[in-house]
Amino acid sequence: MIAPRLLRSSFEVPCTIEIEHTARSLHAHVHLDGVEIEPGDSVTVHDAPTDVPFGGTTVFRSTATVTRGSVFDALWARFTGYRDVTELYEVGFEGKS
After folding, report:
1. What is the C-alpha to C-alpha distance for residues 57 and 42, in angstroms, rounded to an integer?
2. Distance (Å, rounded) from C-alpha 71 to C-alpha 83?
3. Alpha-carbon gap, residue 21 to 52, rounded angstroms
């Protein structure tokens, strides 16, 4: 059994960053090497490019700092995530005319 984290801890990990800026898509994805992110965790990517010209796709390697959240951070993230998702629900029942 894994003991719950009572305090936050940080470590650096290598990562791959993919940025696409085209007519079809505008996105950025970060793939952390061998690390799974859990509720309450935060990630800071270092030295990421801020400008990719239109029509371009960039893939490069960098490092990221992962800050593991405490058990309280994880509970808060789950609670607020659940609350935010339930705000998206809109259920209506209309009879046939």
Report:
1. 25
2. 18
3. 7
20 within a domain of the structure (yes/no): yes
User: For residues 14 and 63, what is the distance between their CA atoms, to the nearest angstrom?
Assistant: 4
- In angstroms, rounded to a whole number, what is the distance separating the alpha carbons of residues 61 and 77? 29
**Residues β-bridged to residue 20:** 27, 57
Please give the structure tokens belonging to residue 89: 């629900």
Instruction: Give the confidence band of 75 by pLDDT, cuts at 50, 70, 90.
Output: confident
Whether 1 shows a pLDDT value over 50: the answer reads no
User: How many domains is the chain partitioned into structurally?
Assistant: 1
Q: In this predicted model, what pLDDT tens digit does every residue of 31-69 receive, in sequence order?
A: 999 888 888 888 999 988 878 889 888 899 999 999 888
Distance between CA atoms of residues 40 and 79, nearest Å: 11
Query: What's the alpha-carbon Rg for the chain, to the nearest Å?
Result: 19
Residue 64 CB neighbour total at 10 angstroms: 21
29: containing domain: 9-88
